[in-house]
Specification:
This protein has 368 residues and is mainly α. 40% of the residues lie in helices and 5% in strands. InterPro entries: TniQ (IPR009492).
């Protein structure tokens, strides 16, 4: 840990609104002409002493001590620093109460549980080109699917190396290099000793409907608590709203492929859900939630799940909610019975959602 406060840096890059912490540190390193490890140390971050290092909980949560160190080095306030970390979504889109800086297990458990990428990101090529390489923190969310401004599907993988964006070798968390300069506009994945130089602004993606863009904007408004969270006509907490979306998505996944003809989603979204289900059956059949509760692996899967979940959330009252849940729960029933314990028992769901689910399944909703 850096002793005392770091010295003030002569060259400081102002964080862009909504930018992620990792993105800002990358741009700071480029501006100062130094590798990431050196930049992290200059900011007062706690980094390991190995050749390729990464600060635990990097970009996830931040301590008051680190905020003071960054303020001393850059003049960037603690409020802005916290806003660049995923903790800005704590209690809404993610639950990070158990994450402790320096505790590897707490970080690992939270990353496996929450619908978020701690050390990766989706991206809008047009946004990156316009910003010069600033990566918004919300691109890390599991519900990140489209760019509301450009109405384009977010990119998941580099088309050249097939590694998830901002991940390291073999998809593992990228570390803070002692020798390499970051390249915010390039893939940068390290594979077999070679660095992927794919320019991200040149990656092609597909246009989406205005409806999908509006759905993404709604998710962001609720995640940032700028808009009340409404579920079946009732105001609920942002955390409960996202829990209900996730629970609905789990019902959809449990019901695939039988439920697919009943879903109001695009053909591409339905195809992505079917492909995800087929791949999941080959990868994982164990665990209380298993593949049904994992974060969407692609933006297209997220779009398919969100379209259905928001339709359920928009039901006007409990009776309408029951009608919308009935086909989903019916198709999911068989695979749901195989889950022990029931994964929904661990979720803080709105009372109206729980009541509707029990109405659909009788008294079995909490025992299946």
């Amino acid at each position: 840990m850096t002793v005392g406060l770091p010295r003030r840096l002569a060259l400081v890059v102002e964080p862009q609104p909504g930018e992620s912490f990792a993105s800002w540190v990358d741009r700071m390193a480029v501006r100062n002409g130094c590798p990431l490890w050196m930049m992290a140390e200059a900011l007062g971050l706690d980094v390991r002493a190995s050749g390729e290092v990464r600060s635990l909980a990097y970009g996830v949560v931040v301590t008051p001590e680190t905020c003071r160190a960054i303020w001393a080095a850059t003049g960037v306030s603690a409020e802005v620093v916290r806003g660049m970390h995923l903790e800005v979504f704590d209690g809404s889109a993610v639950e990070l109460a158990g994450v402790r800086v320096g505790d590897k297990d707490s970080v690992r458990l939270a990353e496996g549980r929450e619908w978020v990428q701690f050390f990766g990101s989706r991206a809008c090529p047009r946004c990156l080109a316009a910003s010069g390489g600033a990566w918004p923190v919300w691109w890390k969310l599991g519900w990140a699917m489209v760019c509301p401004e450009h109405r384009m599907l977010l990119v998941d993988l580099c088309p050249k190396c097939r590694v998830s964006l901002r991940r390291g070798p073999a998809g593992q968390p990228a570390r803070l290099s002692r020798s390499r300069m970051p390249a915010p506009l390039q893939c940068g994945a390290l594979l077999s000793g070679a660095i992927c130089d794919q320019p991200i602004p040149q990656i092609s993606t597909r246009a989406v409907s205005g409806e999908l863009a509006d759905q993404q904007q709604l998710v962001l408004e609720v995640a940032m608590r700028r808009q009340p969270a409404l579920f079946a006509g009732q105001v609920v907490s942002a955390g409960q709203w996202f829990a209900a979306l996730k629970a609905t998505a789990m019902l959809v996944r449990l019901g695939v492929p039988e439920v697919l003809p009943l879903l109001d989603a695009t053909a591409d979204g339905l195809g992505a859900l079917a492909a995800e289900a087929a791949a999941g059956r080959r990868r994982n059949r164990a665990g209380p939630a298993g593949r049904f509760g994992m974060a969407p692996r692609t933006a297209l899967v997220a779009a398919g799940l969100l379209a259905v979940a928001l339709k359920v959330a928009a039901a006007e009252g409990e009776s309408a909610l029951v009608a919308r849940l009935m086909p989903l729960a019916g198709a999911a029933r068989i695979r749901w019975k195989e889950r022990r314990p029931d994964p929904l028992t661990r979720m803080d769901l709105p009372a109206v959602f729980t009541a509707a689910l029990e109405a659909v399944l009788g008294g079995q909703a909490r025992r299946l």
